[in-house]
Amino acid sequence: MSSSPVASSSVSLTRFLIESERAGHIEPDLRLLIEVVARACKSISIAVGKGALGGVLGDAGGGEASINIQGEAQKKLDVLSNEILLEANAWGGHLAALASEEMDHAVRIPDHYPRGRYLLLFDPLDGSSNIDVNISVGTIFSVLCCPDCIEGPTDADFLQPGTSQVAAGYCTYGPSTMLVLTVGHGTHAFTLDREIGSFMLTTRNMRIPEETKEFAVNMSNQRFWEAPMQAYVGDLLAGKDGPRGKDFNMRWVASMVADVHRILTRGGIFAYPLDSKCASKGGKLRLMYEANPMSLLVEQAGGAASTGRQRMLEVQPTGLHQRVPVFLGSRNEVEAAERYHLEHDTPQRERAYEGSAVNVA
Ligand code: AHG
Ligand code: MN
Ligand code: MN
């Protein structure tokens, strides 16, 4: 029998979610929420697919730069994707509030609609620098639960660690449009069947190989990295002749969604480490709607995700737009990167004691 991942192609996202509900993995409102996000992603996919013909390329703001809370210039598709997700999620009754890369603060569901107990965070369009050059971009989302904040949700209600996520996913707008989803019971990939307009399950239970020979990092930042990162990548580049004893390949799309999708599919490590350009902000990527959802997807596929010094999902957030260093992917490689940081942070004398039979307690 074929082991092709397409073997389960007759399972639509709708059927998968209903079966997840029957299995007790999700509640009806979470099922509705995911369906609504998936529908919004289909609309974004259509807009992305039109490219120049849809008038969606280029900068937002009509001549004057439009700058978001991150201090980054917005593209037309950043703004459009944000609006599509907001509009789709406003009226269903499943959400208390939404937060986005493109909005300064969380937005409450308007009073004239019922409010539910879920909180939705998203990066509406990830990989903005690739929009105008026809390279894969995506949408990332994270779902939290807040039964006590239905009446008056605020930014503070979103500040829950990644372990509290009840669902996370991304949609990649590439040669095919794919939705990759977890509700805490494995990571599953769905491919958009454009003829019937439905996401179909194409890989159940994605698994990331523990070992890898591929890394993804923006090498142009090398001279700005911390010492442990310099040492780690130096050893990867040394290949067979270095301490790692094998040659590594490198890939960098500069769309986190596309890089993570490759890693979920065939392994690898993705790193956006701390560097002296972004150190004052804590890193480049955002914890709540980039690092946390991707980390849950990766862990649910057997991989690991870390800041280099701590499990990503255990970071206690302090701000909606907080940034963090990111290392995620094949388990053994993420653990190797962590060791370089640990060894750098631990004074040499302490390390010598740990390695000897001397009891220093
Ligand atoms: P966004 O487009 O949502 O701002 O995110 C861009 C992120 C991420 O997708 C990618 O991995 C990284 O920025 C690329 O950074 P460089 O431009 O430094 O390569
Ligand atoms: Mn992003
Ligand atoms: Mn974005």
From TrEMBL:
Top-level enzyme category: hydrolase
Biological pathway: Carbohydrate biosynthesis
Predominant location: cytoplasm
Boundaries of every Fructose-1-6-bisphosphatase class 1 C-terminal domain copy: 208-341
Reaction(s) catalysed (UniProt annotation): beta-D-fructose 1,6-bisphosphate + H2O = beta-D-fructose 6-phosphate + phosphate
Keyword Flavoprotein belongs to the record: no
Protein location: Cytoplasm
Domain Fructose-1-6-bisphosphatase class I N-terminal: 12-203
Binding site for substrate: D126, G127, S128, S129, N218, K284
EC code: 3.1.3.11
Keywords: Carbohydrate metabolism, Cytoplasm, Hydrolase, Magnesium, Metal-binding
Signal peptide: none
A Pfam family of this chain: FBPase_C
Subunit annotation: Homotetramer.
Similarity section: Belongs to the FBPase class 1 family.
Name the UniProt record assigns to this protein: Fructose-1,6-bisphosphatase class 1
